[in-house]
Design a protein that fits this description.
- The structure is a homodimer.
- The first copy, chain A, is mainly alpha-helical.
- In chain A, 67% of the residues lie in helices and 5% in strands.
- The first copy, chain A, contains seven helices and two strands.
- In chain A, strand 1 and strand 2 form a beta hairpin.
- In chain A, helix 1 packs across helix 2, helix 1 packs across helix 4 and helix 4 crosses helix 5.
- Chain A starts with a helix and ends in a 6-residue tail after the last helix.
- Chains A and B meet through helix 4, helix 5 and helix 6 of A and helix 4, helix 5 and helix 6 of B.
- Chain A binds a DNA duplex through helix 3.
DNA sequence: ACGTTTTGTGAAACACGGCTAACTTTTAGT
DNA sequence: ACTAAAAGTTAGCCGTGTTTCACAAAACGT
């Protein structure tokens, strides 16, 4: 069951928020992504069904599988945002637009692009939120 | 009335096909994009309403407004495909994935990125289809 | 412990962009 | 000119991902 762009965004935001604040609730994701809590509720149900997240009483967390994707997305996010910022794009715009670019490439293509552009330093998953 | 990704794809394909063969019919667009003629028919109605295309008896053509966007998209397409190919991605995959990247950036950001990466040579709108 | 506020869920609706199927219109072969 | 094929349109459906609104459940202040 392939993940769509929006699913990847949800996973990524759970990942970022959990690094930032420990536990993550639906409402946090909703605020972070700028969608309603109903949307998050629906999306979480789907993602849980597909084995990407698990929902506790009052929190959501990534499974192994979900974490892998989330980390990958975040890595790409940082890469593209860094690239755009280096090109002179403002951080706000770079962040907005990077958000979309991160979903366009296969893992293989992304690695090739990154290695050609030689930005391994700023693109790792360890970059802070 | 903002254009969506799919709308931009339709405009771009009309542009490419018109360079390739002169006049463009709906069916050509359908084959080029791999969608049904019904989908094209619907999309053309919308694009005509918004002033991006005009439909003759048996052809479609871009308005000034549509042409501007189509050219821009094609320019970006060539840029991203070239970039990916240079990175070692196969032409087929590069073309597929470049198709999505071209919709992510604002004009301003794209220009900045292009000028930083210095690929003006291959990214112009004069590149052949 | 009670009531208020916050958080989460469920139902119904909508927009979008595809599809199929049936139909109409145009084009083209003979 | 007639018929058959090709092209275009229309109507209706589906999946995805939103929304709003109403409600349920949990958390929190006092």
């Amino acid at each position: 069951m392939a993940l769509r762009e929006s699913g990847e965004d949800y996973l990524e935001s759970i990942y970022v928020l959990s690094k930032r604040q420990g536990t993550v609730r639906s409402i946090d994701v909703a605020e972070y992504l700028g969608v309603t809590k109903a949307s998050v509720s629906k999306a979480m149900a789907t993602l849980e069904n597909s084995g990407y997240v698990e929902m506790g009483k009052r929190d959501v967390h990534l499974t192994e599988r979900g974490l892998e994707i989330a980390r990958q997305m975040w890595e790409r996010h940082c890469f593209f945002v860094g690239l755009l910022e280096d090109a002179g794009v403002s951080p706000e715009v770079a962040s907005q637009e990077g958000c979309h670019m991160e979903h366009c490439l296969s893992e293989e293509s992304f690695e090739k692009l990154r290695s050609m552009l030689g930005r391994e330093d700023v693109a790792g998953p360890t970059t802070e939120a």
